[in-house]
Structures are given as structure tokens and as C-alpha cells.
Amino acid sequence: MGRTLGWRRAGTIAVAVGLLAISPFATAAAEAAEPSSPLCHTGTWETGRTANPWAKETPREVVRTGPRLYRVYEREWISADSGARVIGTRVHRCEGHTQQKAKSVVGFGLNERYMFDGTTLVRTSQVGWREVVGSINDKWASLGYEQGIVGYPTSNETSTPTKTGAFNHFSKNASIYWSPATGAHEVHGLIRDKWASMGWERGDMGFPVTDEIRTPRKTGAFNHFQAGWSIYWSPATGAHEVHGQIRDRWAALGWENSQLGFPTSDEFATTDGGRRTNFQNNCYIQWYPGRGATAYCNSIPRF
Description:
InterPro entries: LGFP (IPR013207). It comes from Cryptosporangium phraense. This is LGFP repeat-containing protein. It holds the Pfam family LGFP. The protein is mainly β. It has a domain at 212-303. 11% of the residues lie in helices and 39% in strands. The strands form five sheets. It has a five-stranded antiparallel β-sheet, with no helix packed on it. Strands 17-18-19-20-21 form a five-stranded antiparallel β-sheet. Strands 9-10-11-12 form a four-stranded antiparallel β-sheet. The protein is elongated and about 90 Å long. The two termini are 38 Å apart.
């Protein structure tokens, strides 16, 4: 599940275009015929060539995200195809990338989105410029970008502090976490809150190994994590972790589709030296060293 990071492809430069306002008479051909300009220039560029008698590109701002530099330009030109005046923005990615062009997408709280090879650069009024790269970018794309369940990025990609991995946080109480062992997976809502309360990937659960998945027969959801941990949520029970031999017993019985239903507590220690997780329907699973895990309902051993 290795991560391919577009910025490591050296030797070329990338360009993205966002059309902020187009004359009603502009066509797809007119957009395709927009004039090229010097890459990563630092001053206003103008052309007087016959096909585009008036066009200019004016530097607006410089954006740096970690090692990568972007230059943002205001764009104006006259379409050679229709004579329409076209107004927009252009972003040059100025350090070793493949040349590309893409429109800015506006809506869902997102002001601008520029798509490069393996990287997406966005600007929102809430948090400014943010960058999503590599496998995290691929996962975000598969979820529908800002229109999907995670929303738009509120952080740049950040390395996890104590384990090899990375993450971006997103606007809908969501995150996408990546590690070499697990790939990239999203976590959101109350399951994310529970995982965060237990130390994120630094805790015993490690990284997520699935996206959030809806339970097949009952209203609820879950994420599985490294080291044999899961967090299950339902409207009636909230979000709770389950792990180890208690989780194994519950899984063998049919998970939430069994008589036990969803967990109603995290695992906790009992006064007699055991461990226990409570479930719906007045059920629980009790574990003791050397004896393993047994399921009880109404205090009667069942399974």
C-alpha cells in the first residue's frame, strides 16, 4: 500500500487553471485556446500576438506548503475562438512537476481547487490554502472531494509524530490517515472522536485499516484498526471500542447481528481480575486469564 507522491517526479513544472468568470459567449474551444505564459514568472506578463491581441497574467500571491512552492496569478485574455473576454486564475507549481491545467471548482465551502498530478491544492475562506497529496489525495478523490463525507481539508498533510505515517484533517469532523502498512483510510464523526480520545494512531489501536463501514442489518457503523481493535457506533449506544479475545468472541457470535447487539461500554477491568465489555439486551462478555471469554445475557452464560 505504498504511497506515490507526485512532487517526487522531478524535471518538469505543473500549471493549473481556475476559471472564475467566463463570458456567456465563451466555448470549450475558447477555453482550450487560452494563451500560454512563462512558467513561475515574478512580474506581470502580457502578450500582443495576433491570435490573442490582449492577454495578461498578474502575480497575486505565493503559497508554500512544506517544500513546495506555488505562484497564484490573476488571468485575463480575449478568446481567439469567440472574441469573449475570459477572466480567471492560474496556479503554477514551481518545483519539479508535470505540466497540467485544471479548472477551479467552486461550491460546498470551497473557493478554489487546483488538481495536479498526485496533488490537490485548495483555497477556502475558512482556512486559506491547503494541500492534499499522494495516497491521501487519492482517497479524498475516491470519496468525492469536498462534496463527499469528509468535506474540504483544514490542514496540510502532516507526518504522524511517533509512527511512520501521515494525515490530513477535513471540515466534516473527519480525517484521512495513511501508513505504509495500512494505506489511506478515512475516519469521521463519533468514531473519530472515540479514536482521538484514545490517542489517535499513538494509542493501542494504531492506524485504521478500513474506512467507516455501515453495519449491514442494523443502523450503525464501524472502523477496524490495527492490532485487532474496532470501534462500533449506533444511535442507541454511541461509539465504543472492542478488542482482543472479547472482540473475537463477539465476532464469532455474529458481531452486532448476534443476540448481544452493539457494545454499550469500552472494555474495562473487573474486581475479580478479569476484563469485560457490556452489550445491548442486558448482555456482556467476560474474560479471565486462562479461561478466555464467555458471553452472558441476564447474568446467565450463553456462549
